[in-house]
Amino acid sequence: MSPNLRIAYRFLTAKKRAMFMSLACTILGVGLFIVTQATTSGFEKFFTKTILGINGAIRIEDRIQDTMTSMAAAGSADFYIVNREGVKYIEGVEEPQRLAEAVREFPNVRAVSAVVRGNVQITTSFKTEDAQVFGIKLEDHVRVSDLEEQITAGDLETFRSATGGALVGRVLADRLQLAVGDSFSVAARGQSRALKVSAIFETGYREVDKANVYVLLPEARSLLRRPTGATFLQVSLHDPTRAPRDAARMKQILRHDAKPWQEREKTWLDVFRALRISTMITVSVFTLIASLAMFNTLAMIVLEKTKDIAILRSMGYERKDITQVFLWQAGIVLGIGAALGALFGYVVTWMVEQVPLSITGIFKTDHFIVVRDVNHYLAAIATAVVMVMVASLIPARRAARLEPGDIVRGTAQ
After folding, report:
1. Residue 315 pLDDT > 60, yes or no?
2. Do 250 and 106 form a contact (C-beta atoms < 8 A)?
3. Helix or strand or coil: residue 355?
4. Cα separation of 308 and 315, whole Å?
5. Distance from chain centroid for Cα 146
6. To which H or E segment does residue 152 belong?
7. Three-state secondary structure call for residue 180
8. In a 3-state reduction of DSSP, which class is residue 83?
9. pTM for the whole thing?
């Protein structure tokens, strides 16, 4: 142990109660920072997983048609000036199979599913509800979504093999009092037909569960009178975080509008980000209190140890040595506080994860969702280091400026 560190430890133990207060606040600040970031990030990532499991990472829809104005220049019929006036969108995908093949050529694409969508009315003996029917090729759609995992009653094999089968959202099924095997009438574009519930799914996203009905693609084409084309292509990616960049390239190359999930869900993502920042600021108050307590403690030690400082300076200690003595005191408290705070955060995060919590609306869970990320620990410790060390630097520098002669004469400031 170096002499400076040994002296710092002796000074530190002289103010045990004050140092314990700084240590306790540091532990709380680091620990609660980790817990709040783990929970807010956990819910955000779970929401993201839910969205990707429903709508995929990218949706490719309306074809882009550029509008141009061409003028012959200087009487030459062979030379034209082209002015881009804007972009016109033609609804839907005219050749979904060819477009899907082109999309699969992108390296980050995992799977593609063509979907035909339309508004319908569903009628049972109980009531009538508005809904949206989605025509899918089951093998393709289970690759771009979590539909297979979302089935809560019935099974996909029945849906695949049965004629006139349908997958109905849990909320819609409850509102219409439908169970697996029940029949209902679906009307669209002036025609009506009977379908049977093959399975019931639940995504946890209420807006989807109360409106979506999946049928096989040929059934949807017949019902919606759309023999060709598709409404959109749903795309899943190996790395969903790259969706904005991949969507921009697809839009440019394929000349179809491509929307990444980050753009579609921007509002909710902004809400989670704001919540994460606000909790970060709130729990940082404990670290701020720890830094103020450290400042006050070191300032008191400077006042009480002026004679000791004079002796050290007389023995040949330089100003930087005195500064190090006081910064070592803050460093000891900070090191112990960061280690115990990280342990405290890990334990509390585990305890929070066990707490039952029933949530439905934008996702479905029966307990707190947490994410254990080393970056949360690093950010918590870094925040504590900055606040505590900055607060400790002022009294440390004040102690270093004390001169032995001034201390002896009683004129030290």
Report:
1. yes
2. yes
3. coil
4. 11
5. 18
6. strand 151-154
7. coil
8. strand
9. 0.75
The SS3 call for residue 364 is coil
Q: Report the b/e string of 263-298 with b at 16+ CB within 10 A.
A: ebbeeebeebeeebeebbeebbebbbbbbebbbbbb
Name, in order, each residue with C-beta under 8 angstroms of 272's C-beta and a sequence gap of 6 or more: 40, 43, 44, 47
Residue 161 has pLDDT above 90, yes or no: no
Cβ(200)–Cβ(154) below 8 Å:
yes
Residue 84 pLDDT exceeds 50: no
Taking CA atoms, 102 is separated from 42, 111, 162, 290, 349, in Å, by: 35, 12, 32, 58, 45
* Exposure string over 179-197, b if 16+ CB within 10 A, otherwise e: ebeeebebebeeeeeebbb
Contact 344, 30 (CB under 8 A): yes
How far is the C-alpha of 282 from the C-alpha of 39, rounded, in Å?
14
Which residue has tokens 């918590």? 380
Distance (Å) of CA 155 to CA 88, 199, 393? 42, 6, 66
Specify whether the CB–CB gap between 39 and 368 falls below 8 A: yes
Q: Are 199 and 153 in contact (CB under 8 A)?
A: yes
